[in-house]
Structures are given as structure tokens and as C-alpha cells.
């Protein structure tokens, strides 16, 4: 059976759509959890983005990261969409206490660092790397907000140096992942760094595959078709691979107990 999650704001209210106030689970002295109350049943036809309680799987979670993450038990009736599902009722069963400001920041840094070589292969510029290093120190309480802001501004300038043309798109996205890792608003940072890292990996793979296909095709028309097909396939594979890594990293964070101590 699939496991589902719900992302809420710090006050236990919906944060991506609507403003429902949720019945929160409570942790017992022995570490177990008492689930929250079942949410009132939704009337009418369940429709993603329009009617129902939205929940996500772990694989969909990178698109919806926020301040608090809970495991959720959906009701019997559920409708699935591309990156979320809606259910008529559900209840929160436990909070993923390993997810906090520190681990969210470190997750953003991990995502950005994985694609950083795509930037450094094109530019002799260590500002994105320093931004990630500063963000890690900030997460551990070893850098202040002024240092973080300065590192982010420097990484921002570095990202602007990478143009948006196809040959440099991967480097540009990689630099932006570093910018986000040093963003003060950590919840947005985690979500955006993960997305930009996946974009960078996909762009790089797509471009490399397209070049290889163009070299191997014997006719111009065939070259164009082969280039497009190879680029699309490589994009999808690289995006999926990067997202899969992010999902496994999130899984490790969410399974950690209260202190959120990840390695």
C-alpha cells in the first residue's frame, strides 16, 4: 500500500492550496503517535486542484516541500493526478520530525552540490560552491544571516554570467540551485534547489545525447530526428535519476527521529 504525505505550514494549516486547519497527531511518551481526527468528508465529485484533500506520495513530495510534513492515512475514495492525489477524507497519523529547518537546508545543499560540476566545468568561478558551503555552515549555526545573504548575492551574480542559451543552460540551472541553497527562506530553498538540480542534470544529459546523435546520423533529416529523440530520452532519464536520488534522500530524512541528524 502506498504511503501518503501532507505538507502544512507551521500552524498546521494547508499551505499549497486552501487554508484548512488540520487535526494534528500527538506524540506519546513512548515515542508512538496518536493520530489526529478524521477530516470532515468532502461533498461532491473529487477533482484534483478543485475539490478534495490533497495528499502526495514520497515520489511526488519534492514538488510540495514546506515547513511541516506528516504521514497521512487517506480514506477509501481517492483520485490520482500526475503529481498529487485527492481523497474525500483523511487523517494525519504522525509528523516527520526529522524534517526541520536544518535538514531542509542541508537537503537543498545536497541537491545543489550534486550538479555543481556542471557549472564549474564551464566557469572558473567558486562563488556557487562557496554559497553552498556557507549555507551548510548556516544550517549548523556556524554562519550568520549576513554571511548567508552575501554568499547568495555572489552566487546570484555567478548565475547571471551563465546565459540561457542551450549550450549553457545546465550550468545556469546548476548555479541557480546554489543560489537557492543559500536562500534565507529555507522551505522555498529546499523545493527550488531540488527542481533546479533536476533541470540542470536533464539539460546536460539532453544536450550530450543530442550531440552524439547528430554525429552518428548520416543524413540531415535523420540527424534532426535522431537528435530530438535522443535528447528527449536522455532528458527524461536524467530528470528521473536526479529525482530518484532526491526522493531517497528525503526518505532518509523523514525516517530519522526527532533530532533530524542525517549524514
Cross-sheet strand order for the largest sheet: 6-7-4-1-5-8
Regions with little confidence, pLDDT below 50 for 5+ residues: 209-230
Described by its quaternary structure, the protein is single chain
What is the number of strand segments? Answer: 8
**Major sheet details:** 6 strands, antiparallel
What does this structure look like?
There is one protein chain. The radius of gyration is 21 Å and the shape is globular. With 263 residues, the chain is α+β, with helices and mostly antiparallel strands. Residues 209-230 have low confidence and may be disordered. Helix 1 packs parallel to helix 5 (186-216), helix 2 (127-139) runs antiparallel to helix 3 (145-161) and helix 5 runs antiparallel to helix 6. The strands form 2 sheets. Strands 6-7-4-1-5-8 form a 6-stranded antiparallel β-sheet, with no helix packed on it. Strands 2-3 form a two-stranded antiparallel ribbon. It folds into 2 domains: 4-95, no CATH class; 101-237, no CATH class. It has 6 helices and 8 strands, in the order ββββββββαααααα. Strand 6 (78-80) and strand 7 form a beta hairpin.
